[in-house]
Amino acid sequence: MKVVLDTNVLISGIFFSGLPSKILSHWRKGTFTTVVSQPIISEYTKVAEEISKKYPQINIYEILELFILNSEVVDTGNLKITVCEDPDDNKFLECAIAGNCDMIISGDKHLLKLHEYRGVKILKPKEFVDNYLSHNI
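Structure (tokenized):
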């Protein structure tokens, strides 16, 4: 199973407990593969740097490097998707399509409103855990 994690899911999983943290735990066990693109890596880094100011004890660079090294990095090339209300969210769809992913896990209302795009499911963290990870606990 190949998955794109929206920034809010990855960052929440790194800094806080709860479902996003459980999702990252399953990723570490190899339950699923994460897929990223350069635009997503840039957003992960920008948001993580901002939040890490409040949590300086967490070395965000090591965590992000580990996550990226253990993810499939895809080049979205000339793929330009413009279906999201928030244009910033299109990069997650582009990555998922370029990486032949099964789903995007997100808490973002603009992405979730789509439910599915070109066969890629767009799920809330709870839906992902309940429907795809609960048997692997």
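The beta strands are 2-5, 33-37, 72-74, 103-105, 116-117, 120-123. The chain has a mean pLDDT of 94.
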